[in-house]
Specification:
Blueprint (H helix, E strand, L loop, with lengths): L6 E3 L2 E3 L1 H23 L5 E2 L1 H10 L10 E5 H10 L8 E4 L12 E5 L3 E4 L3 H5 L7 E10 L5 H17 L5 H14 L6 H15 L5 E3 L11 E3 L6 E6 L2 E6 L2 H9 L17 E4 L12 H6 L7
Parallel strand pairs: 4-8
Antiparallel strand pairs: 1-2, 3-4, 5-6, 6-8, 7-13, 8-9, 9-10, 11-12
């Protein structure tokens, strides 16, 4: 990015700190795109990143992340080859590379930075990587938006979160632990279950005309699209780079967001909620922080 100064964009005050966050994410995105292009892997801008490309030629001014989606086959290939391209500054985070990672999608993290959500204290306790990141989602073939598999995955996601970030209420915590044992069983690690479930779509559904982001994402049941919408792509400006978008981006975005060109009534916010960023310090330097000190990090977020 050429301009890192405070600036009002689309009626929203974009601070220099937010732009610095964007730059870190763009640095990761450029590496990701280079890997995909060199290996002929298909990918698309997704969610808010796709809206940003179409509506703003870059980030939505009040957004703070980058979302990418890939067909399952290309996604699995990316996970296999990406570590050979990433230097020590970056970490490919998914269930095989981090013990307590319970998401069904991957992230690339910048090891020299910090990005905390309010639930990240439990990540610190488990030595999870909490650097600035981009999200990489696989999409799978499904039979429709009311798919039983989708509902099953959502249940698993909620149970996994209860294991990693226990409910502070003792009774609720015990009930969730009992439910986890009933539904999943004793001693079966989250990573093994994620691996099993990742295989389910390809084993259960083949040659379907619908695709969806189904991997452990509560609230994403609306993200079901016609498979043919992703058959072709084109390049579109996103800040200072060109990014792939589906040629049928209008149909894709209307399915997910309805009138995606209309600004929300209240500008600001993020799907992640409040985030604490430190671009000058690695998350590793927060390892011994107390819960009280951690909570105070969120008192004066200004980006």
């Amino acid at each position: 990015m050429n301009n890192l100064l405070d600036e009002v964009i689309s009626g929203f005050n974009v601070t220099s700190q937010r732009k610095r966050i964007w730059q870190k994410e763009l640095d990761i995105l450029k590496i990701y795109i280079d890997i995909c292009e060199k290996n002929n892997l298909s990918y698309f801008a997704a969610g808010g990143t796709l809206i940003g490309a179409i509506r703003h030629n870059g980030f939505i001014p009040w957004d703070d992340d980058i979302d990418i989606m890939m067909p399952r086959q290309d996604y699995e290939k990316f996970l296999e080859i990406a570590p050979k391209y990433l230097d020590n500054k970056y970490f490919l985070q998914y269930y095989k590379t981090e013990k307590y990672y319970y998401n069904g999608h991957a992230q690339i993290r910048d090891n020299e930075t910090t990005c905390f959500t309010k639930n990240s204290y439990y990540d610190i306790l488990h030595d999870k990587n909490c650097g600035v990141f981009i999200d990489i989602f696989p999409y799978d073939e499904v039979s429709g938006e009311n798919d039983k598999l989708v509902k099953k995955l959502i249940m698993y996601k909620k149970l996994f979160i209860s294991e990693v970030a226990p409910d502070p209420n003792k009774i609720k915590r015990c009930l969730k632990k009992i439910l986890y044992k009933i539904k999943i069983g004793n001693g079966k690690k989250c990573q093994k279950i994620i691996e099993d479930i990742n295989r389910l779509p390809s084993e259960t559904y083949k040659n379907q005309n619908k695709v969806a982001l189904i991997t452990f994402m509560p609230g994403y049941m609306k993200n079901v699209w016609n498979k043919e919408w992703f058959n072709e792509f084109e390049y579109h400006q996103f800040e200072d780079i060109q990014i792939r978008i589906p040629k049928a981006y209008d149909e894709v975005l209307k399915t997910e967001f309805n009138n995606y060109m209309e600004f929300p009534k209240n500008l600001g916010g993020s799907i992640h909620g409040e985030c604490y960023f430190d671009l000058d310090k690695s998350y590793k330097e927060y390892k011994n922080i107390s819960k009280e000190e951690f909570d105070k990090l969120f008192d004066n977020i200004t980006y």
